[in-house]
Amino acid sequence: MPEPPYVNPHPFIELFIGILFLTVNIFVHGAGVRAISQRFSRSWSKTTPTTPHWHVNLIFAAVIGAFALLHLFETLLWASPIYLTGAIASFRDSYYFVLENYTTLGDDTVNLPPAWQLIGPIIAMAGLFTFGWTGSVLVGIMSEFGRWDRNRVNGA
Fold first, then answer.
1. Element (H, E) at 77
2. What are the CA-CA distances from residue 2 to residues 7, 8, 23, 37 (Å)?
């Protein structure tokens, strides 16, 4: 009996599937970034120079927590099909594999079968894109905090 095509795919099929998942991942990240940014803007618009520091820090903590959850959800989107196709036998190992590639840790303790090894670097590309995007949004948010601090010091 011949093997199903997903057991030993052609490298172009493997790349196509990887890029498809990368695109979905980036789309999900964009939607998440927009939602987090909108929530931040609504909360931030209510701050004044007299807003307590703890409240401002709580807004920042909520943004960081939301980004962490977004990245964990995105990696879940990668781990689920890896587990469901049986490429990696346990869900925990599938998720660990994705996390180590997404963060470019590359510990290499859990691996995909040889026929699917191109997926790992594509997951790393997705992580680089999304972490870079998150970092740029956080730079903008920290700029708001700097303005808030200047206004507070200057009594505006």
1. helix 53-84
2. 10, 11, 31, 50
Tens of pLDDT, residue by residue over 14-66, are: 898 899 999 999 999 999 999 999 999 999 999 988 899 999 999 999 999 99
Long-range CB contacts for residues 103-109, cutoff 8 Å, separation at least 24: 103/127, 103/131, 104/128
Helix (H) or strand (E) segment spanning residue 139: helix 119-154
Residue 9 · residue 116 · CB < 8 Å = yes
Q: Tens digits of per-residue pLDDT, 71-99?
A: 999 999 999 999 998 889 999 999 999 99
CB 87 within 8 Å of CB 17? no
d(CA 116, CA 119): 6
Which amino acid is it at 151?
Answer: N
Torsional sign, CA 17, 23, 25, 27: negative
In angstroms, rounded to a whole number, what is the distance separating the alpha carbons of residues 41 and 94?
A: 36
